[in-house]
Hints:
Layout: H1 18-24, E1 37-38, H2 41-50, E2 58-62, H3 68-74, E3 80-85, H4 91-100, E4 105-109, E5 136-140, H5 144-160, E6 171-177, H6 178-185, H7 195-201, E7 204-212, E8 217-218, E9 225-232, H8 242-253, H9 260-265, H10 273-284, H11 297-313, H12 322-342
Parallel strand pairs: 2-3, 2-5, 3-4, 5-6
Antiparallel strand pairs: 1-8, 6-9, 7-9
Helix pairs in contact: 2-3, 6-7, 8-11, 10-11
Bound molecules: S-adenosylmethionine.
Protein name: rRNA adenine N(6)-methyltransferase
Subcellular location: Mitochondrion
GO biological process, one term: transcription initiation at mitochondrial promoter
Amino acid sequence: MAASGTLSTFRLPPLPTIREIIKLFRLHAAKQLSQNFLLDLRLTDKIVRKAGNLTNAYVYEVGPGPGGITRSILNANVAELLVVEKDSRFIPGLQMLSDAAPGKLRIVHGDVLTFKIERAFPEILKRPWEDDPPNVHIIGNLPFSVSTPLIIKWLENVSCRDGPFVYGRTRMTLTFQKEVAERLTANTGSKQRSRLSIMAQYLCNVQHILTIPGQAFVPKPEVDVGVVHFTPLVRPRIEQPFKLVEKVVQNTFQFRRKYCYRGLGMLFPQIHRVESTGKLLELADVDPTLRPSQLSVSHFKSLCDVYRKMCDEDPHLFAYNFREELKQNKSKNQEKEDDKERNGL
Ligand code: SAM
C-alpha cells in the first residue's frame, strides 16, 4: 500500500496497448455479457480527470475488463486502486498492470453486486458525513444491465450511510446508457424526468459530465454512453426512509402521462382511494393536475412527509399494494363467474 502524502508522481512504464492486451490474452468481448471496451487512453484519461483530483485517493474500480480506465486511474497518482472483475479471462492482463505498478493495484476476481467494499479500505479514511467527502472514489464502466440496478442499490446505501458510504460521502463516476444518464440528471419539467431523476437527486448532487459516442467503444454498442458523477448530499432533500420515497416515486411515475393524482391514488386501497388521495395532495399542497414530470424534489418531499404521517396513523397502509388488491379482485370476480356457471345462470 502506498504511503499517503508522498509528493512523487507515478507513471506506468511503457506497456502493450489495450488492443495488444486483448489480442495477447484472446479477450474478445462477450456480446451476451454486454462487454464494450474503451481502448483510447486519451478518453479514459478524460473520464478519470472528470472524476476529480485522485491524488493519494483510494479508488474502487468496478468491471475493469482489459484495463483502459484502470491505467488512467493508476497514472492519476492514487494511493491504492482496488478492482473487482467478474470475468476470469481479464485477470492475467490486470496482473500485468499490477506488476507494472507495484503495491498499487489490488485485483479481486468477484462480483460487484456482492463485494463488500466497506471492509476493503483502511478505517482511517472514514470521515463524518457532514465533512468534505473522503478520499475514496468509485469509478466504472459496467454493462448497462448491471450499472442501473447497482446505482439503485448504492443510492439506498447513501440513504443508510452504509456499503461504500461507511467512509462518508464517497463520490462515484459511472457510465450509463446516454438515455439513463439524461434521466438521472433531468430537471423538473423535462421530457426525461423519471423515477431515477428523483431517487438520484434527492440524495446526491448529480452531474452528466461527459457523453461518449458509441463508436469510441469496441465493439460499438447500439447507443451512446453518458458519464455521470454523483456526490452524496450532506442533507438529503427528502428525510424519509428510502423504501418509502421509492414507493411514492414509483407510484407517481407509473402513469407518467396522466395527472399526478392518478398514480398517487394507487398508494391507497380502492375503498377510500379518492378521499385519501385528496387528503394527501391537499396536506402536501400539491396541485393534483400536475404531471409526474412537473413535480419538483420539494413537491416529492411534501408528498413523502404527508404519506409518512398517514402511514403512522394507519399501520396497514405502507404494506398496501394495489397489484395485490387487483389480483384478489380478479380472483373474486372469477369465483363469481364460476358460481354463475355452476348454477346455470
Ligand atoms: N471497464 C472496461 C472498459 O471500459 O473497457 C470494461 C467495460 S465492459 C462494458 C464491463 C466489464 O464489467 C467487463 O469486463 C465485465 O466482465 C465486467 N462485469 C460485468 N458484470 C460484472 C459484475 N457483476 N461484477 C464485476 N465485473 C463485472
